[in-house]
Structure formats: C-alpha cells, structure tokens
Design goal:
There is one protein chain. The chain is α/β, with parallel strands linked by helices. It has one domain. The chain is built from 13 helices and six strands. A six-stranded mixed beta sheet has the order 4-3-5-2-1-6, with helices on both faces. A hairpin with a 2-residue loop joins strand 1 and strand 2.
C-alpha cells in the first residue's frame, strides 16, 4: 500500500456503540421517499466493509438505481481529496504518535498496520484518528465496498453522481475530536482488536439481514463491557453519526426535490429518531421500506 491508498473517512469506520434505543426505522436498507408534488426517490443504507458476502448489490437495489436519474453519495474521493485527507491526518509539528501513546502501543500499531505497508516513520507522524481509520483497512480487501459498487454501477450507466460532503468536512469530523478521546479510542481498539474484528463480522451479518436495530444492539452490548471509554465514544458518535445525519438530511433534499434520485449513505445514518429518514419525515417526506 502506498500513501495514495491511505484510507479516507467513512462513517462507521470507528466502532460506534452507545445508542439510544428507539423503535423508529429498525429494519430495512432501501426506502422509497416521497413528498406531495415531487417524483419519488430512494435512500439506501450501505456498509463500509469489504466482506466477500457483500460482493454483489441486491437486485432490488440495482433496479432502483437503474430507475434513477442521479446518484448522491456521502463522499466521492479523487486524487486531490486523498492527498488532502492524508495531509490532515498527520502531525505537521514535532508531535509523534509514539509520544502520545507510548512505545508499547506504538509497537502494536506498527504490527497491525504492517499488512498495508506503511513504514515506521510515516506511521509515527499519524494522528490517532488517522490510525483508527486505517486499522479497519489493515487486511486484504476481499471485495469492493457496497459504496464502490454503487458508484461503479452508476458510472457504467452514465448516471450523474454527486457528493453530500466535501473533503474539508470529512477532515473536520475527525480532526476536531479531542485528542484525549482519539488516544483513548485508539488504545481501546488496539487492546481489543480480536473482539472488534469479530464485531465487524457480526455487523455484516446483521446488515445482510437488513436489521438496523441489531447493528445498534451489537455495538451497545460491546461498549457496555468497557465503560471507561463510553464518554470518548459518545464524542465520536455525536460527530460521526448524529451531526453528519443532520447535514445529510438537509443536503439530500436538493436532489429529492428534483425526484428520481438515489441517495446512498451509511446504514448507521438510517436508524432511529435521529436518523436521516426520521429527519426527512419532520420535513414532510414519507419513507416506505422497499428492501
């Protein structure tokens, strides 16, 4: 792996437990969104994982995308945004990762990032959040992510593609997270690597069952075992999920107003009374589960 392949942000890249329980939008990945006087559109929940069980888009999803005139995704990386994201994920002064987390945890970082070929000097300049995002990708990709498959499908059919967020907003989500919380979450991830890998597999299983509530419950149960990081996780959850869901629900309405749109974003943003579907309903839309 070279520096251009450094992982960009993605919702759900950091384990996001500790959710308020609710009965709103608990099951379903593909939703038909309508509002009087506007053509119908679709909102689809993705998962940012390369598990081989996700190697093909479900037929109802492909069919809905084929009927759409435009695709809107969370973020559409390019060469510039990759370089900018990498720059932001690194300390530009005398600070080092080892100086913040200590020699033992730094050795664990080096070991766990070894599969993606980042050298010691480079890793030592990464901020904790930069490491957290890349720990998830430190294994061979077994298939393209659902997001990548959707973009490829749209491009093959010459469907217009737009993004909800810009690279500076993606950077802000993580870079403004308190350094104390970044360090605590990184140390926790290093100490519980095996459990997190298992959690990721079980999360994919829940996703394949289209069970949003189960995804939430898996994470709630996990964080409940480690209350020492609960406050730090709550900070990340607010930034990565709740704050971004508000922005997403607002910005996607530009395309929903035109109609015949297909919006793809992380499934974590669909669930519950603070998810995008509930927020859209507050603005007069109606969401009906398709798949």
């Amino acid at each position: 792996m070279n520096r251009r392949q450094f992982a960009l942000a993605a919702a759900g890249a950091v384990a996001a437990p500790s959710w308020a329980r609710t009965e709103s939008f608990v099951r379903g990945l593909l939703w038909r969104v309508t509002k009087p006087g506007m053509p119908a559109s679709y909102v689809f929940g993705t998962i940012h994982d390369t598990d081989p069980r996700l190697a093909e888009l479900p037929p109802p999803v492909s069919a809905a995308l084929d009927r759409s005139k435009g695709l809107m995704v969370e973020f559409l990386p390019n060469a510039y945004s990759q370089e900018r994201f990498l720059e932001a994920a690194m300390f530009m002064d005398r600070q080092t990762l080892e100086g913040h987390i200590g020699a033992d945890d730094f050795a664990r970082v080096l070991e766990q990032l070894a599969p993606i070929g980042l050298d010691r000097e480079f890793v030592n300049k990464l901020k904790p959040w930069g490491v957290l995002l890349n720990l998830r990708s430190a294994r061979p990709a077994e298939s393209a992510t659902v997001d990548a498959q959707i973009v490829a499908h749209a491009r093959a059919r010459r469907i217009a593609i737009m993004q909800i967020e810009g690279v500076e907003e993606q950077i802000f989500t993580f870079d403004e997270c308190p350094l104390e919380s970044q360090i605590a979450l990184l140390r926790h991830s290093l100490a519980h690597r095996t459990e997190l890998i298992e959690l990721a597999g079980r999360t994919v299983s829940a996703y394949l069952e289209r069970d949003l509530a189960a995804i939430w419950r898996l994470r709630e149960d996990f964080i409940a075992r480690y209350p020492a990081v609960a406050a730090h996780q709550a900070v990340m959850t607010q930034r990565v999920i709740y704050d971004r869901s508000v922005v997403m629900a607002f910005r996607m309405q530009r395309e929903l107003h035109r109609g015949d749109a297909f919006v793809a974003l992380g499934a974590l943003h669909l669930y519950g009374s603070r998810g995008v579907l509930a927020l859209l309903e507050q603005d007069g839309y109606r969401a009906a589960r398709v798949f």
